[in-house]
Input
Amino acid sequence: MILPIVAYGSPVLRKVCDNLTPDYPGLDKLIADMWETMYNSNGVGLAAPQINVPVRLFIMDSEQIFENQEEDEKDDYPDAPGFKGVFLNAHIVALNGKEWAYNEGCLSIPKIREDIMRNEEVTLEFEDENFNTHTKTFNGITARVILHEYDHIEGKLFIDYLKPLKRKLMKRKLDDISKGRIKVDYRMVFPK
Output
């Protein structure tokens, strides 16, 4: 089922999310709905708080970035062919490599994109959808997507990395999003 995306200004987007346990009700359906919602919204990642569920769960699929690359972009990122997975109860073990800029956007903050600096590499400890524990290192665009989604389960948004003046300049756009004065081609729910 395609779920509505929570818009900027909703309190759930600022909450540090709770861990999941194997007895969490309807987890398989929640994950399936998140995949359907993410692909329907043309996203490459989606965190549970973005569908109004404050738990440490996100999904991501950087494989589609590589599948849709132009020929001249083929060598831009070291992590081809990308990664697709479910991340439960994720925690960062280490950040490595130099920081690099990439023009990020977010389904919860539509029509705003900004260059954000993030580390080249992240080592993450997480559980998969079967609660098997993994410690894995990701780099390139895959690390970027993971760090963006990880921020969501920590109550952080990509615009938090912007300088105060830049944030001030986009205040009207952010207000329009939180008040529902924006048109997007996917379902959204706005703060009351």
The helical segments are 27-40, 63-67, 140-153, 164-169, 171-178. The domain at 5-186 is CATH 3.90.45.10 (Peptide Deformylase). The chain has a mean pLDDT of 96.
